[in-house]
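Handout, section B. The chain below has 230 residues.
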Amino acid sequence: MLPGIYFNTGAGIVRQKELAVITQNLSNAMTPGYKKERIAFSRYYLTVIERIKTDFSQGDITHTGNPFDVAICENERAFFVVRTPEGIFYTRRGDFSLSREKKLITRNGFFVQGQKGDIVIKGSQITITEDGRIIADGKTVDKIKIVELPLDKVERYGRTLFRLKGNIRPKESESFKIMQGYLELSNVRPVEEVARMISCLRNYEISQKSIQSQDEMTSKLINEVGSVRI
């Protein structure tokens, strides 16, 4: 295979992966707490190397008025802690609710963790302070556990859940602000993603045309060069 064909084939494969990432971002543009992804690739001789990175920048904060909606502000490294059947995970998605057992849960039914473990809230007047304390009918029942993660050691698990690689243990965050009745939206900007999609498709088309051109050139060389002319 000609080097040019090899490289353009690799570039085309990367563009397909980039398109999949962009599509995933667009499909989660309205998902609270979703963090967009980016694919970067470089060339090492004739090998195309791609890396998918998560952008942890904070999304816009919107008011909902729901007392169980909470947003973390002023610290992009701060995360809620949730307990799942598969272990402990971390999220920025704060559209919580109460289970039948009066436990604070995520949209998927996972248990939000406080300083005492699963958070149990019994009462009619619920207040969540800026430092995460939960007050029910005038009494503090628990405090939402907020941890600070080393973002270079974080990997995605599903749409809005994350976990730490290896045996790293996160530290509790001391720098954050909780806003009750608000949600952090996805940090996806649809207009930007559409522009990236158009650019990706154009680059993919260029790679395909280059492969076709080199293939035609190779075919012409094989069929014509060195042929005996009478």
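Note. The mean pLDDT is 86. Compare this with the example in section A.
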